[in-house]
Amino acid sequence: MKKFWSILLIMCSPFAISAQQRSLTDSVQYRVEMQATLSSGDHAPLWLNANKYGLSSLKTTNGYVRGAIERKLSADDGRKWGIGYGADVAVATGFTSTLVVQQAYVEGRWLKGTLTVGAKEYPMELKNQALSSGSQTLGINARPVPQVRLALPEYWTIPGTNNWLALKGHIAYGKTTDDGWQKDFVAPQNRYTEGTLYHSKAGYLKIGPGNFTAELGLEMACQFGGTSHLFENGVEKVYDNDGGLKAFKNAFIPGGTDATDGNFKNAEGNQLGSWVARFSYDQPTWNLAVYADQFFEDNSMMFHVNKSGDKYFWYDFKDWLLGAELKLKDNAWLNNIVVEYLYTKYQAGPVYHDKTSHVGYQISGRDNYYNHHLYTGWQHWGQVMGNPLYVSPLYNADGHIEVEHNRFVAWHLGFSGSPIQQLNYRVLASWQKSYGSYYYLPVNPMENVSCMAEADYMLKDGWSIKGAVAADFGKLRGDNFGFHLSIVKTGLIK
């Protein structure tokens, strides 16, 4: 009898293992975190606040308790399909809201394609997550936007190319969640929006299977729909923007026109994007990469040419984020170095002129990066959704939801290492000189230096402790000094 049960157990074990593998409650990870930030000055220093997916604050004293569970799609690796989900909630003090639902999503995978519904933190593409100053279009500086996202998240090799060509990308539509914050933050008779819809898309092509690879891509985004509240000569004007199927099409393929355009037509919504590229050379002990991110707000800087009548206007290639990254594979003390240069002063030039009956040519300049005449610009909950060196609206003491400093020159340095197995560190330092914007001109250019040193020590049983000290110096963000401390516990729910 004992032998019978042993044989039966052996026969049934593959089905038991299969059933266990297909359980949606296996491989669920948890994370609990407590963080506190203390600062002196007008604000928390830049690098204690920036590039944290908006789960941060400019208040000099702030903190949160955070809990999250996640089942990654990788739990179903080896099968044609996969299921993932996550929930990430924080209770905060000194933030734009006390209860923060940072992430809440479900997603499915079939072969290489994924469909995600909800709010999820997505990493930057073609840049170092920890050391870069940030992407100019699809950054990691603001809270995630709830969306429906269809993606090819990992490179898929195109058949018949002998592994020389591979593609990845995504298409997403969503809706912003900061209506209440806008009403609380904005000063009387300053514009705000409600129910703004969101669209993003990106495609990347990878060339080369060997030591040298090239990655080329296009990232685009749009804010559209919703209701805009504008004030003209003290009188409020409300515009109900189109949110129908035609508006979704115009967000995907820029077209249409806004309610406030009048005789001077522009593409519907706040359209923006970046051309991105990364070139890497890999060796056994090191890897060197150079990359570029060229931002644009309209056709003039997207294609660098504008045709008006029988005239062509050519635009310079001045505005760039240019970077280099060196990985030292055998050097634990210093294993990664990133250097970046940003120039955003040009913005298609200082002249804008619409075509009229008297002047038959249109000159498209003064692009006013991250701002828009109808929407509150490329921001969510007061934080820019791109690179945080563009000064976020949260810094504005006058209650304007606007990026007032978008014309600047900056240098950024980041490096990291792991002196011992349990210890990781990173250092960030940025210098920036701002010229305001074409519509906001400070009396003199405003400079700023921001730096941070951070260390993360892994303890036993999934515990870790992280500490950082940071400072700002200069007129742009003020003289600020602060530190933060976080304690984290991670593990697997059995």
Automatic annotation (TrEMBL):
Signal peptide: 1-18
Domain (Rhodanese) ranges: 227-257
Keyword Transcription regulation: no
Keywords tagged on the record: Signal
Name of the protein in question: Rhodanese domain-containing protein
